[in-house]
Design goal:
Layout: H1 3-7, H2 11-34, H3 41-67
């Protein structure tokens, strides 16, 4: 996902997508042990997407604290 796509999501959508991506990454890592992946960039892209989403959630939490 791109940065602007993540910024367009609300908090609940981010949490849902984050959980989905973390499960997908765990499945991919499990499959990687058994056989060689067809596209090794999937690992890097998944980790980066997870990182972007966690960063956006942190930004939202920080913004809420400042307004309260």
């Amino acid at each position: 996902m791109k940065k602007y796509e993540i910024a367009a999501l609300n908090r609940q959508e981010l949490v849902d997508r984050l959980k989905e991506l973390e499960e997908r990454l765990a499945d991919i890592n499990f499959i990687r042990v058994i056989e060689q992946p067809q596209n090794p960039m999937v690992f890097r892209n998944s980790r980066r997407d997870i990182s972007r989403m966690k960063k956006r959630l942190h930004q939202l939490a920080t913004a809420e604290k400042q307004t309260v």
